[in-house]
Amino acid sequence: MADLNSTALVAREDRLIERAAGILERRFLAVRGPKLDNASAAKHYVALKLSRYRREVFLAIWVDAKIRVIEIEEVSRGTLFQTVIYPREMVRSAIEKNAAGVIIAHNHPAGSLEFSAADRELTERLRETLKLIDVRVLDHLLVADGVASLVQVEAREALEREEIERVRREEQLVERRAKREEQAAARRAKRAAKLA
Predict the structure, then answer these.
(1) Which of 65, 54, 57 is nearest to 102 (CA)?
(2) Contact partners, residue 101, CB within 8 Å, separation at least 6
């Protein structure tokens, strides 16, 4: 009996989540859609929309030049571990919608909140392809146990690389100073030996 009640509860919760996602989508799309001037609105929407799926689903949130939502499109559904995206179809959708930008999003039903190498390659391929028609990929959101933003991950990685480079330059500077001081000390010792 407990299994039947928990199954009914899960089904009821799933319906409630579906209704909430529908309300958010209607609000997103009301009068050409709201302006997405902060990342949290898109993150909240995709978290609600994608967290319930047990297989990978890929969404595109198409926006105009003022970052107002034009349409939210489910681009693909896949398996537990992957979904297939064709850049050609993304170009077609962008042109049909007269979009200036897109926020792409997908879920990892297995729970990993890390962008895979394939996720990063796809994002770069879409950036390059859509750039040809003046459409910007604004972000790639990943839903698992939370929501991750590839733009934020890349920014953090760039800062880490800059910090590593700064530390490397400082270490080289310290090494050069130490070498100069060592050479100066050797010259002084040589002069002292000549005088003695």
Answers:
(1) 65
(2) 62, 63, 64, 65, 67, 135, 136, 137, 138
For residue 30 the two structure tokens come to 């009301």
Give me the mean pLDDT over the 110-132 stretch: 94
Q: Please give the CATH topology (third level) of the domain spanning 2-156.
A: Cytidine Deaminase; domain 2 (3.40.140)
Average the pLDDT over 149-170 and give the result.
87
C-alpha–C-alpha distance, residues 133 and 155, integer Å: 25
Amino acid (1-letter code) at residue 107: N
**DSSP 8-state secondary structure symbol assigned to residue 138:** E
Report domain extents, the chain. 2-156
The chain-wide mean pLDDT, for the chain, equals: 86
Please give the Cα distance from 103 to 60 (Å, whole number).
Answer: 6
The pLDDT value given to residue 49: 87
